[in-house]
Amino acid sequence: MIHLLFTVIGCEMILIVLLLFKTPLRKLVIMGLDRVKRGRGPVMVKTVAGTVFLVLVSSVYSIMNIQERSVEGGIVNPTDQVLMAKHLLEASIMGFSLFLAWMTDRLHHYIRELRLLRKSMEAVKKQSRGFDDAKNGASEEAKAMEEELTSLKAKVKKLESECETKKKDVKAAEANAEALRKQSEGFLLEYDRLLEDNQNLREQLQSLDRGLSYSDSKKNP
C-alpha cells in the first residue's frame, strides 16, 4: 500500500508541476481534469478521497491505541514500534496525498477561472475597440451633420430674408390695390355724378325743345 501511495503522490506532484508551468502538456492536463470533473467523475473522486480519509483515520486510531498500550505497559514492544512507524508513515503519506489532491483541484479551478477572466477581458477589449471605432465614425458623421446643419441654417436665413422681401412687396401691392380701389370708387362716384348731370341736361333740353315747339305752333296757326 505504501508503494501505491508513493506512486499516487508522485503522479500528483507531476500534475502540480505541469499546472504551474505553461508548457504544451498543460493544456492536455487541463483537458484531462475537465473530463474527470464531468459526469460521474466527481462522485468517483469523492468516493476515493473519502476512502483514503477513512483509512487515514483508522491509522491515526491505531497509532493512538499503540501509544496507550505502551503507556500502560511501561515497556515499548518492538512489534508495536514497527506497527506504529508503519501506521505513522501511512497516515503521513495519505494526508500528504489528500493535500496534494486538494492543491491539484484548486490549481485547476483557478487556472480555469483565469482563462475565463482573460476571455472576458478580451471580449471587453474588443467591445471597447468597437465602441471607439463607432465613436470615431459617429464623430465624423456628427461633423458632417453639423456642416449640413450650418448649410441648412444659411439657406433658412436666405429664405427668411426673401420671405421678408416678399412680404414687403405684398404689403406694397396691397397698399397700391387699396389706393386704386379708392381711386376707382372716386371715379365711379364722379361717373355717376356726370351721368346724373347729363340726364338733367337732357331733360332740360327736352323741355326747351317742347317749349320751342309749342311756341312755334302758336305762331303758325
TrEMBL record:
Q: How does it sit in the membrane?
A: Multi-pass membrane protein
Q: What's a single GO CC term here?
A: endoplasmic reticulum membrane
The UniProt transmembrane annotation reads: 6-22, 43-64
| Coiled coil segments of this chain | 107-211
Entry's localization field: Endoplasmic reticulum membrane
| First-listed, main subcellular location of the protein, grouped into a coarse class | endoplasmic reticulum
Q: Which GO terms describe its biological process?
A: endoplasmic reticulum to Golgi vesicle-mediated transport; intracellular protein transport; protein localization to endoplasmic reticulum exit site
Q: Which UniProt keywords apply?
A: Apoptosis, Coiled coil, Endoplasmic reticulum, ER-Golgi transport, Membrane, Protein transport, Transmembrane, Transmembrane helix, Transport
**Family to which the UniProt record says this protein belongs:** Belongs to the BCAP29/BCAP31 family.
Protein's name according to its UniProt entry: Endoplasmic reticulum transmembrane protein
